[in-house]
Amino acid sequence: MFRRTFWFTSGVAAGVWATTKVNRKLRALTPESLAATAANKALETGHRLKDRAVGFALDVRDNMAQREAELGDALGIDTDPELPAPRRFAAIENRNDPKYVDPTYSYNRNEDH
Length: 113
Known about the structure:
Helix content: 55-70%
Number of strands: 0
Shape: elongated
Structural class: mainly alpha
Strand content: under 5%
Number of helices: 2
Order of helices and strands: HH
Largest sheet: none
Distance between the termini: 119 Å
C-alpha cells in the first residue's frame, strides 16, 4: 500500500514539474518574450560597444598627444603655445543695443510724423 502511494506521489510530482517546465518554455517562446529578449541583448551589446569605443578613443587621444610631443621635441617646436582666446559672436544681435539705435528714426508708431 505504501509502495503504491509513494509511486503515485512521485508520478504526480514528476508530472507537475514537467508541466511547469513546459509552460515556462512555451511562455519564453511567445513573440512578446522573444522581442523583449532581443531588445535586452541589443541594449547590452550597444553598451558593450560604446564602452569599447570610448576606451579606444581615449587610447587614440593619449597616443596622439604623445606622438605630437615627440614630433615637437624632434622639430624643436614649442608644444604648448599660448593660443588666443576664442572669438564668440552672438547668434542673435540685440537691436536695442545703443550701437544699433538710429537717433533720426523713431520707433514709436503712434507718434505723429
